[in-house]
Each structure stands twice: as structure tokens, then as C-alpha cells.
Specification:
Layout (H helix, E strand, L loop, with lengths): L5 E7 L2 H10 L6 E2 L6 E2 L2 E9 L5 H5 L8 E3 L1 H4 L2 H8 L5 E9 L4 E5 L10 E9 L4 E5 L2 E2 L6 E5 L5 E5 L5 E9 L2 H13 L3
Antiparallel strand pairs: 1-11, 2-4, 3-7, 4-5, 4-6, 6-13, 7-12, 8-11, 8-13, 9-10, 9-12
Length: 195
């Protein structure tokens, strides 16, 4: 089944508890995103689940489509609500990370290969901190995502982000494998989305 390029999934998470887990990791370092040509400013990540054989910080935040063995990190072990959120996905969770875009930073328009439901892999965005001055565009159309919502985005399509606000934009970004449970959620979301 072909899905729209964006779907607000029928899942909701507690924004205050998401922010509390994020705040508890305040002393943990972030790793600069490794594809420097795709952004200006500070775009960085913190791994919550990573490829089991990852040793270098860059590989810890990379969602390798050729890997199938993923493991939780110490950051996830220290984050009870993030564990609960990931545990609510009744499908195989590969990489999971916090992704931060600081004020004044831009993610340039790019596409992420076969990262779409039709190829069997989905990326789910769960905003933690954001605001009206954060602009996420997919296929040059804005996607407004509020804290605690869960969004499927077909990121094999062109997308870009601008943080024109005064605070960090942080999303919990979860890469999962498609299965019947997730397809059902996405069908329900597609049926509930106005044409």
C-alpha cells in the first residue's frame, strides 16, 4: 500500500514526561551530525538505541539500513519514559535517538534514500521541544508537529528544517521496520486525514 508523505499517527505521549527525560540527560554530550553538507549551524544527536557493534560516536547515531542487531544505550537506561515510549511500538525498533537543532540552525533540503514505508522502513518523529518558529517542510509543504505527537514522514522525499526560534528543537526520532501493526496504524491515520 502507498501512504501519504506525512501521517499523524494515532499515538500520543506526555510532553511533560518527554521533557523531564530530556532534562535528566542535560549533562550528556551530543554528537554533531556527520553529513555536514546537509546543514548550517548545530544539528546533533544523542543515541538511545544503536547498532550493537557501533563503537565510534558517529556510528552510534547512524541508522545503518544494513544492520539488524540493535541495542539500548546507557542514555536510554537512564530515561524511564523514553523506554516506555519505545516499548509502545509493537514492531521492531532499530535506531532511536534524540535529534537537536539549535536556534538559527538550518537542515538543508535533502532526501534519505529508501527511508519510507514502501521500502519496509519507517522513521517516526516525536517532538519534545519545538515551537511555531520551527519550520519543517516535506515536499516544500510545512508539517506542523506538536510535542507528544507521533508522525510518520516519508523522508525519501525532499525535506528541510529551519529553527527560527529562540530555543532548541529536539525530536525523539525512531526508525522501525514495517509490520501489520504499524501498517494498521498508518491506514487508520490515512483514513482520518482530510484529502
Amino acid at each position: 500500500m502507498a501512504f501519504p508523505d506525512r501521517l499523524k499517527l494515532p499515538l500520543a505521549f506526555d510532553p511533560a514526561r518527554l521533557r523531564a527525560d530530556l532534562a535528566a540527560l542535560a549533562g550528556t554530550s551530543w554528537t554533531e551530525h556527520f553529513v555536514r553538507q546537509n546543514y548550517e549551524g548545530d544539528w546533533s544527536a544523542m543515541p538511545l538505541r544503536m547498532a550493537a557493534d557501533a563503537r565510534h560516536p558517529v556510528m552510534m547515531i547512524y541508522s545503518d539500513p544494513n544492520k539488524s542487531d540493535y541495542q539500548d544505550t546507557l542514555m536510554l537506561a537512564a530515561s524511564p519514559y523514553f523506554r516506555e515510549v519505545l516499548g509502545s511500538f509493537d514492531c521492531e525498533v532499530h535506531a532511536a535517538r534524540l535529534m537537536r537543532l539549535t536556534p538559527g540552525s538550518t537542515i538543508k533540503e535533502h532526501s534519505d534514500g529508501d527511508l519510507d514505508a514502501e521500502h519496509g522502513r519507517a522513521r517516526i518523529h516525536i517532538p519534545i521541544t519545538t515551537g511555531p518558529d520551527v519550520v519543517f517542510e516535506l515536499n516544500r509543504r510545512r508539517v506542523d508537529m506538536a510535542p507528544g505527537e507521533a508522525w510518520y514522514l516519508r523522508l525519501s522525499d525532499p525535506h528541510r528544517v529551519f529553527n527560527r526560534g529562540g530555543t532548541d528543537r529536539v525530536h525523539l526520532v525512531v526508525d522501525v521496520l514495517m509490520n501489520g501493526w504499524l501498517e494498521g496504524l498508518m491506514r487508520d491515520a490515512a483514513e482520518a486525514t482530510p484529502a
